[in-house]
Write a structure and sequence with these properties.
It comes from Streptomyces nanshensis. This protein is an alpha/beta fold. It has 11 helices and 8 strands.
Length: 268
């Protein structure tokens, strides 16, 4: 870790705030304070964090079991929380290969937890920024782990609402998908204010603009990330309604309580 990568424990970071909501241990008081402020104005955020993880688990299992995907690129992976993506995928197909990428130095400290996979498969971690796709696609870790001539599932879970249009959110997603071959998939989960128009203002005030800049998007704006791809049924929906296991979403959770869209699309 370089001097520029030293962890600033005085400022909250999205990955560590998320870790707090998931009952993790890899956060500091600044992160916990920010997390509690958000809970005060958005009581469902802790449930939402867990439902978001369940969405990732369901999609990963579907991609491995039904779509035959054996390679994943997970950007904005965050601090390891078991079961992580590679554990879910390799439990179905041990030969699955996974590359994790994140820009938070504390995730680098926990990288060994991300790298413990099956002997048949491979896992790798790289510290990189989503807004610099060339640094991800050209990294030795990715090139040594994934075969970009074969389909790859690009997983962007709870990441894009931290990337504004001005920082190239759409352009970066398209650049990453352009580099992947036909048969690859895009997986997105994204917070929305569609069900509570004041949500963005309240959450931004709770974060006190110290965690990260961001942009909450509508259903149509989230759908734009899938332009040029074949969107799978049921389309862009509140994430706990995306192909729920057992056929029924949690009936006691309203869309307003879990205002996070999820969607999956295939590159033709």
């Amino acid at each position: 870790m370089t001097a520029n990568d030293e962890i600033d424990t005085s400022r909250p970071h999205p990955a560590r705030v998320y870790d707090y909501w998931l009952n993790g241990k890899s956060h500091y008081e600044a992160d916990a304070a920010a997390a509690r402020r958000v809970v005060d104005v958005w009581p469902g955020v802790v449930l939402g964090a867990h439902l978001n993880r369940e969405f990732m688990h369901r999609v990963t299992r579907w991609l491995v079991e039904e779509a035959g995907v054996r390679q994943f690129l997970d950007i904005g992976s965050g601090i390891p929380t078991e079961p992580n993506l590679h554990q879910v995928a390799q439990a179905v197909a041990p030969e699955t290969r996974v590359v994790y990428a994140d820009n938070d130095p504390i995730v680098l400290q926990h990288a060994q937890g991300l790298l413990r996979g099956t002997p048949e498969g491979r896992t790798a971690f790289l510290q990189a920024d989503f807004t610099e796709p060339e640094s991800i696609l050209g990294s030795p870790q990715l090139r040594e782990t994934l075969d970009l001539d074969r389909p790859v599932a690009l997983s962007l879970i709870a990441l894009l609402h931290f990337i504004t249009d001005e920082r190239g959110a759409y352009e970066t997603v398209h650049a990453l998908m352009d580099a992947l071959p036909s048969g690859s998939y895009l997986v997105v989960s994204h917070a929305t204010a569609d069900f509570d128009p004041d949500l963005l203002t309240r959450v931004a005030e709770a974060y006190q603009s110290t965690v990260a800049e961001g942009q909450i998007r509508s259903s149509s704006e989230v759908s734009r990330f899938f332009e040029g791809l074949e969107l799978l049924e049921p389309g862009v929906v509140v994430a706990h309604r995306w192909r729920p296991e057992g056929g029924e979403a949690q009936s006691d959770v309203t869309d307003a309580e879990f205002p996070v869209y999820g969607g999956v699309a295939r590159k033709p």
